[in-house]
Amino acid sequence: MGVRLMVVDDHRLLAEALASALKLRGHRVLAAAAPAAGAAELVITRAPEVCLLGTAMPAEPGIFDPVVRIKRERPQVAVLVLGPVPSPRGIAAAFAAGASGYVRHDERIEGVERAIMKARAGEAAVAPQLLQGAFSELLNPAAQPDDEGQRLLQMLTPREVEVLVRVADGEDTRLIAAGMGIAPSTARTHVQRVLMKLGVGSRLEAAALAARTGLLDRAGPVARDSGSEA
């Protein structure tokens, strides 16, 4: 049985070509839209089973914000990120945002269709070679420059820094929310954004990266300033 899906990509020709190819294979394509800025709103409104969401720069901070919003408001929608050859951290950021998988722009239509079926079934859909690269970097991380902690710190807002410090202290979402005086859903969103910006796939990885790069040492004053402003 065909899948109800959407194709959303900045490159209209690519979106329309992919949509046409999937229609020929028996799938029901609800829309092929170009503007990334309106992608989340469109997907939330149409509520497909699977959404193929195009991206040009998977490592850019905030690039997966539409995925976060879609999963928050339509958790039943499986989102497949469609993009160029990603870095392992780019894949981790996509999954941290809630994506069900990652499909390369140059993937054959058979591979795209397999990923769609996996995503609809609730399985992770990512090519084995991309997973291998991600595992390789996790097992043999590249040496970080001395200023890496400062660079990462500059990517985070003061509130996100406070969240990171609390994550490193082992606080769960409920404790973070209580300590910061915010709703658990807001705390969860902050955590997701921190993971995405750091390019990691879990809270444990975020804490380890922060400790390894000295980010936590630099974060203390920022977190305290943030707390005094709240």
From TrEMBL:
<dbReference type="GO" id="GO:0000160">
    <property type="term" value="P:phosphorelay signal transduction system"/>
</dbReference>
<keyword id="KW-0804">Transcription</keyword>
<dbReference type="InterPro" id="IPR000792">
    <property type="entry name" value="Tscrpt_reg_LuxR_C"/>
</dbReference>
<dbReference type="InterPro" id="IPR001789">
    <property type="entry name" value="Sig_transdc_resp-reg_receiver"/>
</dbReference>
<dbReference type="Pfam" id="PF00196">
    <property type="entry name" value="GerE"/>
</dbReference>
<protein>
    <submittedName>
        <fullName>Response regulator transcription factor</fullName>
    </submittedName>
</protein>
<dbReference type="GO" id="GO:0006355">
    <property type="term" value="P:regulation of DNA-templated transcription"/>
</dbReference>
<feature type="domain" description="Response regulatory">
    <location>
        <begin position="4"/>
        <end position="120"/>
    </location>
</feature>
<keyword id="KW-0805">Transcription regulation</keyword>
<dbReference type="GO" id="GO:0003677">
    <property type="term" value="F:DNA binding"/>
</dbReference>
<feature type="domain" description="HTH luxR-type">
    <location>
        <begin position="149"/>
        <end position="214"/>
    </location>
</feature>
<dbReference type="InterPro" id="IPR016032">
    <property type="entry name" value="Sig_transdc_resp-reg_C-effctor"/>
</dbReference>
<dbReference type="InterPro" id="IPR011006">
    <property type="entry name" value="CheY-like_superfamily"/>
</dbReference>
<dbReference type="Pfam" id="PF00072">
    <property type="entry name" value="Response_reg"/>
</dbReference>
<keyword id="KW-0238">DNA-binding</keyword>
